[in-house]
C-alpha cells in the first residue's frame, strides 16, 4: 500500500509542470486579460474566465481519454510509410521555401508602403467586451487546449497517469492534480484581478503595450528567414531515401 501511495505522489508531483505547460495558452491568456480589463461588471468577468477554464479542463480531459483508446504511436507507424516519400523529397522544401520567400517579400513591400500610415488605435481600456454564453466560453477554453505542444503534453500526462496505478479509481488522483494545475493560473488570475489592483494595472499596461506594438517587422523577418532555411534544406540538406531504407 505504501509503495503505491509513494508512486502516486511521485506521479502527481511530476504532473505539476506538465499541467502548467498544458494550461499555457497565449490566446486564452489574452482573452482572460481582455475580459478582466474591459468588463464593467466584475462578477461577470470572473465568471467568464472560470467558464473558459472549465473548457480548458474539458478539452484536456478529452485528449487524455482519447489517448487511452487510440495510441498515437500506432498511427504514426501506419502513416509513416505513406508520407515519408513526400516529406523527405527535395521539391517539398524548395516549394515551401519559395512560397515563404514570396510571402515575406509581399509582407515587406506592404510594410514599407504603409509604414508612415497612422495605425488604428487600440480598443479603449474601458470598452466593455462582448458577453458570451457559457457554452461559447467553454468552447474558447477547449480550443485553448488544442495545439501541437498541448497534444504532446496531454499524451505524456496520460501515459504517466496510466502508469501510476493499476486501479482505475486511484488514477483519478493524479488526473485531478493535472487538471487542477492546468486551470489554476486562470482561476488565480480571475480571483486576484479585482482584489489586487496593482497586479491588474501592471498586467493591463503590458497587455495594451503588446496590442499597440507593430509586429509587422517580426512577421517579415520570420517569413524571409524561414524561406531561406527551407531553400537551403532543399538544396543541401535533402536526405537519400534509398539510403534510409537500406539503413533499416
Question: What is the compact description of this entry?
Answer:
The protein is 79% helix and 0% strand. With 248 residues, the protein is mainly alpha-helical.
Which helices and strands appear, and what pairs or packs with what?
Elements: H1 2-23, H2 26-38, H3 42-69, H4 72-87, H5 90-114, H6 134-143, H7 148-164, H8 172-193, H9 197-212, H10 216-236, H11 241-247
Helix pairs in contact: 1-7, 1-8, 2-3, 2-9, 3-6, 3-7, 3-8, 5-10, 7-8
Explain what you see.
The chain is mainly alpha-helical and about 250 residues long. It has helices at about 1-25, 25-40, 40-70, 70-85, 90-115, 135-145, 150-165, 170-195, 195-210, 215-235, 240-245. The longest helix has 28 residues, at about 40-70. The protein has eleven helices and no strands. α1 (about 1-25) runs antiparallel to α7 and α3 packs antiparallel against α8 (about 170-195). The radius of gyration is 23 Å and the shape is flat.
Question: What would the keywords be for this entry?
Answer:
248 residues; mainly alpha; 79% helix
Summarize the amount of helix as a percent range. Answer: over 70%
The fraction of residues assigned to DSSP E strands is under 5%
Which geometry do the CA atoms define?
Answer: flat
Report the biggest beta sheet as strand number plus sense, adding barrel if it closes.
none
Distance between the termini: 45 Å
The radius of gyration over CA amounts to 23 Å
Helix-strand pattern, N to C?
A: HHHHHHHHHHH
Structural class: mainly alpha
How many beta-strand runs? 0
What's the pLDDT, averaged over the residues?
Answer: 77
Tally of DSSP helical segments? 11
Unreliable parts: 121-129
Amino acid at each position: 500500500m505504501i509503495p503505491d501511495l509513494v508512486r502516486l505522489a511521485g506521479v502527481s508531483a511530476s504532473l505539476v509542470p506538465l499541467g502548467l505547460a498544458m494550461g499555457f495558452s497565449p490566446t486564452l491568456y489574452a482573452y482572460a486579460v481582455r475580459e478582466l480589463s474591459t468588463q464593467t461588471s466584475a462578477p461577470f468577468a470572473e465568471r467568464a474566465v472560470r467558464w473558459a477554464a472549465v473548457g480548458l479542463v474539458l478539452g484536456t480531459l478529452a485528449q487524455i481519454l482519447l489517448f487511452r483508446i487510440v495510441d498515437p504511436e500506432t498511427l504514426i507507424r501506419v502513416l509513416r510509410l505513406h508520407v515519408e516519400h513526400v516529406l523527405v523529397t527535395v521539391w517539398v522544401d524548395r516549394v515551401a521555401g519559395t512560397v515563404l520567400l514570396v510571402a515575406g517579400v509581399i509582407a515587406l513591400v506592404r510594410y514599407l508602403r504603409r509604414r508612415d500610415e497612422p495605425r488604428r488605435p487600440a480598443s479603449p481600456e474601458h470598452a466593455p467586451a462582448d458577453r458570451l454564453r457559457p457554452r461559447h466560453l467553454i468552447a474558447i477554453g477547449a480550443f485553448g487546449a488544442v495545439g501541437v505542444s498541448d497534444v504532446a503534453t496531454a499524451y505524456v500526462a496520460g501515459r504517466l497517469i496510466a502508469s501510476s496505478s493499476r486501479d482505475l479509481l486511484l488514477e483519478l488522483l493524479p488526473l485531478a492534480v493535472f487538471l487542477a494545475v492546468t486551470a489554476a493560473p486562470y482561476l488565480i488570475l480571475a480571483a486576484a484581478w479585482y482584489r489586487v489592483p496593482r497586479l491588474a494595472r501592471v498586467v493591463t499596461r503590458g497587455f495594451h503595450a503588446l496590442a499597440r506594438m507593430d509586429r509587422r517587422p517580426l512577421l517579415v523577418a520570420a517569413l524571409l528567414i524561414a524561406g531561406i532555411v527551407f531553400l537551403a534544406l532543399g538544396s543541401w540538406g535533402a536526405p537519400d531515401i534509398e539510403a534510409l531504407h537500406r539503413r533499416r
